[in-house]
Amino acid sequence: MRTETTLEAPSDHAGQKFFVNIEGQEYPWDKPTITVPEIRQLGNLPADQPVICEDEEGRERTLAENETITIKPGHRHGRAPKYKRG
Known about the structure:
- 9% of the residues lie in helices and 31% in strands.
- It has 86 residues and is mostly beta strands.
- It has a domain at 32-85.
- It has a five-stranded mixed β-sheet with strand order 2-1-7-4-5, covered by helices on one side.
- A hairpin with a 2-residue loop joins strand 1 and strand 2 (25-29).
- The longest helix has 8 residues, at 36-43.
- The chain is globular and about 35 Å long.
């Protein structure tokens, strides 16, 4: 009998907590990046509508389906980026 063990290298972000705000609901996230399909899945957003990012200054932009967004760790004070359906 042969047993294989795979060890993963420790993450550079170990211990950090990330949060994603989708349509006013804050969701915990375990990685420093999130893709548009992951935002859709996490927030239960329909595939037939665009995902819009609202930045800290209230500007909105439509995200590309293949886009990856970098998330800052922790809860945000003041305005944090928000995501919503278009």
